[in-house]
Amino acid sequence: MASKQFTKDEVAKHNKQDDLWVTVDSKVFDLSKFAQMHPGGLSVLLDEEVAGQDATAIFFSLHRYEVLQKPQYIRLQIGVVAGEEQQIFPREVGALSKVPYAEPTWLTQGYYSPYYKDHHRRFQTAFRKFVEDWMIPDAHAREEDGKRPSQSVFDEMARLNIIAMRLGPGKHLEGRELMGGIVKPEEFDYFHELIMGQEVARINARGYYDGCGGGTYIGLPPILNFGKPAIRDKIVREVFEGKKLVCLAITEAFAGSDVAGLKCHAKRVDGGWVVTGTQKWITNATFADYFTVGCRTDQGGMVVLVIERGPGVETKPIKTSYSTTAGTGYITFENVHVPYENTLGSDNGGLQVILSNFNHERWGMSCGSVGGQRYIVEECLKWATQRQVFGKPLTSQAVIRSKLAGMIARVESAQNWLENITYQMNHMNYKEQANHLAGQIAFVKKFCTETAQETARDAVQIFGGRGITKTGMGRFIEHYHRTVPFDAVLGGAEDVLGDLGVRQALRKMPKNARL
Ligand code: HEM
Predict the structure, then answer these.
(1) pLDDT for residue 88 is more than 80
(2) Residue 441 contacts residue 359 (beta carbons within 8 Å)
(3) Which residues form the Cytochrome b5 heme-binding domain (predicted)?
(4) Are 281 and 413 part of one and the same domain?
(5) Is 97 among the domain residues?
(6) 265: containing domain
C-alpha cells in the first residue's frame, strides 16, 4: 500500500481531466486514467467539490466499502493526506458488528442471556469466521456463474464436521471433532444449530445457501432415522465426508404442501420397488447423488425410498427467482428399480417418515429467516445514517425512523420467540417436541417469513431505486427482496402452517372450557 504523504494543497492542484486526484478517508487516489472508465462517469469526478478535494462523504453515499477493497482500485491509491488518519473501517473477518440490533442481544455488549454458554460463544466466533473465509467468496462467484457450490467448501465443511452438525444434536455426532474441537459432541445442542442457521444467512446469497447442502438438511434425516443399517451407514458416511449429496423429493406439480396427495408411484416387485413419476421444485436435485422420495403404493399408502442417481432417473433445472447454484430441479423417475433395502421405515408408513422431519426443518428455516432479517436491519441502519437527502441524513425523516422501528421490533420478537422454542427443544425428547412444539414451530415460521417480507418491502422503500438494483449500494436489499418468498413457501406455505398450528391448539382445548 502506498504511504507517500501529500498536503491538501498538493492534492487540490490535480483537478483536471487528465490529472485528477481525489481523497477518500485520508487516502489519495490518482483517477487520471481510471476516470474515463469510471462506472459513474467522468463528469461527476470533475465536479469542483470532487476533483482534487476530499470526496469521502459523497464517495460513501454512492459506493459500498468493498469498492475500496478490490485490487484494481487499491492500485489507484498513491498515498495519504499528511496529518489525516483513516476513520472508516470495514468490520474485521469474523468480528461482531457494532451497529445496534445488527447482532442478537446475546452477542451485544452489556446484555445477558440465560441460553448461551461459553462454548456457544466460541462456536459462533469460529463459525462466523468460517462463513466469511470460505462461504462468502465462493457464494459471490457461484451466484455469478450459477454453478453448484465448490467442492473445496464441502471438503472444508466435512473436515470441520459442519455437514454432520447441520443435522442437529444427536448420536450422529458421537466421536466427531466438531469445529476443530471447540465444542464437544455432548455439548452440541439446538442453540449451536440456531447459530449456524443465522450465521449462514448472513451470506445473503439465498440460492447458494440452499446449494450448500439444503437438500441434505432435509433429505438425510429420514435416511439417518429410518434407513436400514447398511445403506444408512454408507450414505451417512459419504455425505458427512462431503463426497455425496442428498435431496428430499416430496413435492410434485400435483401436490405441494399437501404431501398426502403425491402421485409418484412405487410398485412392489421381487427384491424391491419400481418407481415411476415426477417431483418438482426439488432443492439440489440437479447435482444430488441420492433422492429421498415419497411415493404412493398400490395399497394407497405411502412409502419413502432412497433412490440413487442411475438409469431412469433424470433431473433438469427449474428456473426460479434465485440462482441455479441451489440446483432446484424437476425429477423424472421412469421404471426405476429400487432395492428393498432402500426402503425408509415401513412399506406403507411413509407419511410418518415425512412428517417426522417437518418440525426440525421449519425451525431451521426460521433460524435462517431471522438471521437474514437482521442483516437487512443492519444494512438499512447504515444506509439511512450515511445517505444524505435535502442536506440531512435519511434518518432525519420520521417516516424512515418509523420503518426502522418496525423492522427492529419484528426481528427482536422473532429472535426471542425462536430462542424460547430452541430452549424447549433442548429439553424435550422427539415425542414431546412433536406434541408440544409442532404448532409453536409452525407459528414461528409463519411469523418469521411474514415479518421478513414486511422488512424486505420496507427496506426497498428506504433504499429506493437502489433496492431494486442488482449491483451497488442496495444489492443485498434487491437480493433479499427477490428471494425472501422462498422461506415463505418452502417447508409449508404460511396459511397452511397457521392452520396447522390452530388445529393443534383446538385439539388441546379442554372440553369444559367456557367463557
Ligand atoms: C476511489 C475512487 C473511486 C472509485 C474506485 C470508484 C469506483 C466506482 C465503481 C466500481 C462504481 C460502480 C459501483 C457499483 O455498481 O457497485 C462507481 C459508481 C459511481 N461512482 Fe465512483 N468511484 C470512485 C470515486 C467516485 C467519486 C469521488 C464520485 C463522486 C461523485 C463517484 C461517483 C460515482 C457515481 C455517481 C456512481 C454511480 C452510482 C450508482 O449507480 O448508483 N465515484 N464508482
Answers:
(1) yes
(2) yes
(3) 3-82
(4) no
(5) no
(6) 245-348
Residue 256: Cβ-neighbour burial (10 angstroms; 0-12, 13-18, 19+): middle
Tell the burial category of 9 from Cβ atoms under 10 Å away from its Cβ (0-12, 13-18, 19+): exposed
Report the CATH number at residue 257: 2.40.110.10
Same domain, 499 and 366: yes
Side-chain-side CA neighbours of residue 41 (13 Å): 5
Residues 258 and 367 in one domain: no
Total number of domains in the chain: 4
Query: Which three cell numbers, joined as nine digits, stand for 149?
Result: 457450490
- 396 part of a folded domain: yes
pLDDT digits (tens, 9 = 90+) for 274-293: 999 999 999 999 999 999 99
Query: What ipTM was reported for this prediction?
Result: 0.96
In this structure, is residue 236 part of a structural domain?
Answer: no
Which of 63, 74, 463, 476 for mutating ligand 1's site (highest number of atoms within 8 Å of CB)?
Answer: 63
- Is residue 129 one of the residues assigned to a domain? yes
The domain boundary, picked from 322, 348, 374, lies at 348
Pocket probe mutation, ligand 1, options 34, 47, 61, 67, max atoms within 8 Å of Cβ = 67
- pLDDT tens sequence across 313-322: 999 999 999 9
**Distance between Cα 41 and ligand 1 center (Å):** 8
Ligand 1 atom with minimal separation from the 50 CA: 27
**End-to-end CA gap in the chain:** 74
Q: What is the pTM of this model?
A: 0.94
Distance of CA 403 from the midpoint of ligand 1 (Å): 28
